[in-house]
Amino acid sequence: MNFLLEKVTAREILDSRGNPTVEVDAFTSDGQMARASVPSGASTGSREATERRDGDTGRFGGKGVLGAVKAVETEICDTVRGIDVREQRRLDNLMRELDGTENKSRLGANAILGVSLAVARLAAQATRQPLYRYLGGLNASLLPVPCMNIINGGVHARGQGADFQEFMIAPHGASTLTEAVRQGSEVYQALRQILLSRHLSAAVGDEGGFAPAVSSNREPLEFIVQAIEKAGYRPGEDISICMDPASSEFYSDGKYHLRTESSALSSEEMTDYYGELMNQFPIILLEDGLAEDDWAGWKYLHNKLSGRAELVGDDLFVTNVKYIRRGIEENLASAALIKLNQIGTLSETFDAVSLCHENGWGAFISHRSGETMDTFIADMTVALRAGHLKTGAPCRGERIEKYNQLMRIEQELGCEARYAGIKAFVRRS
Ligand SMILES: C=C(OP(=O)(O)O)C(=O)O
Ligand SMILES: [Mg+2]
């Protein structure tokens, strides 16, 4: 077996929105090869690591990533050639030093992450282990609650649906991940029938959830509760709801502007609105309830709602230990969303999750709205015992491929496998 990294190559491929993204191949000197590709967000936090895009419109219409591809094939390849593929942290540090910026803007976080993930997968292959085992060792046995985004709004529905971006179902009462995925897909099919019976569109948004034109942000919650019941499950007992309003997208001049409801709310009013929704609907997780710059508002939100739902920061923390640490010190949330490309290397992503877990916080693993068929996050979620992940609706190839990979892992683990269930959600009184 040979563990020496011979070279990395890259190319521009298309993501699920039809935009260019980076794909990397990594090779050992005895010819083994592993591949990884990089996702891309739409409702991105302003402090995320920089995704490098070419200045002009690329050959596929959207802005290309040929600059990032070139960085992989020249500077990065020259720097990392010859390292042991199992030295993940060394690899990631070398690339960070080579880049030399705080936000990876010189080489591009998309270039760096592609290499980081491809080499991790190559190391798993070279050590003849499945990726989840290579990343998590003996502990890699906890299957997450799949939080499935079945109604898409906000920018993922091009502003045509709800203001809130994501309405997810969490089948935490299932006894296995596979059963949870089945339940989720049953609710999804029931929801389609409910929407069609009301003459609403059943066309889907970026993450595979339906994107009906609704007249409030309460309406999707009503439809979802009906769908859970129609599919034969008990709302709150078997299946609960998670929401990501992605509120930075509708925050301006100190107010939260809800187009569908013709209202503009202060941080306190927005928080009280969430409280009312939690009274009426079985909501167990609220992500980005307030905006990335509204740190004072987050304090109020956490004081009011932390016992009722897991409060997750996405744009607020951008998978960066610097911001998560501040959130822990100031007691602003109970979990961080974890997105690989927000920070740009695998080892920094692991650091973010460790910091959360060491402080009793949740780590909620996430895809991006622009995805590829790469299933890295499925293995990573099991390896990190993160207990819950969101990777879209049980629909659209790039979303279901992650759920399918989790089912494969569960089957492979056999009697070792454990399903995370309701305990995955951190609620503190
Ligand atoms: C997945 C999300 O969307 P995007 O990838 O567009 O940031 C999110 O906001 O959590
Ligand atoms: Mg989010």
From TrEMBL:
Q: What is this protein called?
A: Enolase
* Amino acid composition bias (Basic and acidic residues), ranges on this chain: 48-57
Q: Which organism is it from?
A: Kosakonia oryziphila
Q: Record's superkingdom?
A: Bacteria
The record, for SUPFAM superfamilies, names: Enolase C-terminal domain-like (SSF51604), Enolase N-terminal domain-like (SSF54826)
Record domain Enolase N-terminal: where: 5-135
Q: Which Pfam families match?
A: Enolase_C (PF00113), Enolase_N (PF03952)
Entry keywords, A to Z: Cytoplasm, Glycolysis, Lyase, Magnesium, Metal-binding, Secreted
Residue span of region Disordered: 29-60
